[in-house]
Amino acid sequence: MRYFILAIILILLASVNQNIYSQLLQDRYDRFGKLVISKLSNAPFPHPKRINGHTYDNKTYSYEDHYSDSTVLIFIPKEFKPKQENGFVIHFHGWYNNVDSVLSQFNLIEQFYESRKNAILIIPQGPKNAPDSFGGKLEDENRFRNFISEITELLYQKELITNKQTGNIILSGHSGAYKVISFILMRGGLTDKIKEVFLFDGLYGQIEKYTYWLDHFNGKFINIYTKDGGTKDQSENLMQCLDAWKIPFIFKNEDEIGNQDLKDNKIVFIYSDLGHNEVIHVRSQFMKFLKTSSLEDK
């Protein structure tokens, strides 16, 4: 009985801590819009493949600390106007990060708000503070579709949207997020809805999945990469392949790229002189890519 009571107390304390955490985040971003933080069954984690944690470079990252969190952060900007279809931007964080740290480090909500797009931002918890590119359940067949359906139902029940139809989707990711995005493109169940992909120094592999999507679904692809982020060779290799296949693309240094370049071209490669963790926010890159995207303006 004593252990049962202790377990109940721990569960209640966890619930209280979650509520405090959610309120603190909401207060921090209240001037920009409405923040919803929820534990979702179709979130990337937990996943059976990480039930025993993950070992990288002789260090083990436990399930309890790094792979048990099903948190999903949802942001609806002020002046959002519910439409017949809901536009979504899903951003996936990279290694050694979490949903809270990416907000403060990369100014994602501020940039999303400044883009003036009439859409909803979603940031799921990936491998938490771990060196791991595994996308959990979102690498499984049709689970991305279930993920979006669960979020849509949640927002509908909260009367934050007026319908459950999915509109255009943009997938955005930094660093190791390339892997989960590639699997979503291949078998997530909503590939026809995914109109654009933003990779922030993240093209480490899965090239065949990206090229198949570009070839078969006519999507828009923006890849910004750096000298030392580990993505330069793959980015240049993909450009060589596209050139050989006579598939048009544009390549420019970051200080040369303009809004018209981003609007007018389907495939965009940008070489940045910034560091690996600077290509999302230092020059408001996330906001600029969104501003020139196909999403409807507010």
What would a concise description of this structure say?
By secondary structure, the protein is α/β, with parallel strands linked by helices. The protein is built from ten helices and eleven strands.
How is this structure best described in words?
With 298 residues, the protein is of the alpha/beta class. The protein has two domains: 1-30; 34-291, Rossmann fold (3-Layer(aba) Sandwich), CATH 3.40.50. The chain is built from ten helices and eleven strands. Helix 4 runs parallel beside helix 10 (285-291) and helix 6 (178-187) crosses helix 7 (207-217). The protein starts with a helix and ends in a 7-residue tail after the last helix. The model has no long low-confidence stretch (mean pLDDT 93).
What is the strand tally? Answer: 11
CATH topology value of the largest domain = Rossmann fold
CATH class of the largest domain: Alpha Beta
In terms of DSSP E residues, the strand content is: 15-25%
Shape from CA axes? globular
Task: Determine the N-to-C terminus distance.
Answer: 56 Å
Whole-angstrom Rg = 19 Å
Q: What is the helix fraction of residues, given as a range?
A: 25-40%
SSE arrangement, N to C: HEEEHEEHHEHEHEHEHEHEH
The count of helical stretches stands at: 10
The H-level CATH homologous superfamily of the largest domain, spelled out, is Alpha/Beta hydrolase fold, catalytic domain
- Based on secondary structure, the structural category is alpha/beta
- Average pLDDT reading: 93
Major β-sheet annotation: 9 strands, mixed
- CATH architecture of the largest domain, please? 3-Layer(aba) Sandwich
> How are the strands of the largest sheet arranged?
1-4-6-5-7-8-9-11-10
- When the domains are counted, the total is 2
Low-confidence segments, given as residue ranges, are none
